[in-house]
């Protein structure tokens, strides 16, 4: 029958629909290093708004309730989630972002001013180095072609001279070009390493004819190369270790490479002896193999 006591009247309910508050992170670091301070800022949401930040476990501070937060740090690397909750007129809305925290430590090692100076029968090396820690080694390396290097020795910061200088002597340099570099390596978990620029010294003692012979071992075809050819003829002798001459070849000194056929010689160790006018004899040991 309906309501007969209050004819023509209805119950009117009024509801006010409030919009969500403006919830926006307008400034964030994106990436940080471990223990590097970051800044976070929320957009102004209007009068009466409150701001609640949650920077997650491991953050300092872990939470904050101001619109702008400075000095947020993390001590451990990883991807960190940051949540902002803005409340206004009893309405709340949350947004999140991420910050990548990296281990940014890189050992600072500087090696510079590498010099190589011929000093009689040796080559003296010197360089300067600076590192922001003590767990580092300096490896002295040498090459004949600038590609393949061999280690000659190693020094630690304990060997540093006053002012950060280092010195090393190559007591057995190769005839011809000697190319040096310093490899530095951090003795840390990062195992950081690098190289200096190179320095070159040309070693030729007075009166020595400079040659090289390759391949070694050889199966029969041997190349004798004069590193500094001149007009004087070159006598090349192939001898046994006991001095027996197996081959004797006269070569023009103006030609730098000479092909020698040793295929008729039995397997074994031989000496390549080079004789040139006005220079001391030079002897190179080779190995002949049949297979």
Explained architecture:
It is a single chain. The protein is an all-beta fold. The chain has 3 domains: 25-102, Immunoglobulin-like; 109-203, Immunoglobulins (Immunoglobulin-like, Sandwich); 211-288, Immunoglobulin-like (Sandwich). It has no helices and 24 strands. It has strands at residues 25-27, 31-33, 38-42, 50-54, 59-60, 63-64, 68-74, 78-88, 91-102, 109-119, 122-131, 136-143, 150-155, 165-170, 176-186, 193-195, 199-203, 211-214, 221-226, 234-239, 245-251, 257-261, 268-276, 282-288. The protein has a 5-stranded mixed beta sheet, with no helix packed on it. A hairpin with a 5-residue loop joins strand 23 and strand 24 (282-288). The radius of gyration is 39 Å and the shape is elongated.
Give a nutshell description of this structure:
By secondary structure, the chain is mainly β. The protein has strands at 25-27, 31-33, 38-42, 50-54, 59-60, 63-64, 68-74, 78-88, 91-102, 109-119, 122-131, 136-143, 150-155, 165-170, 176-186, 193-195, 199-203, 211-214, 221-226, 234-239, 245-251, 257-261, 268-276, 282-288.
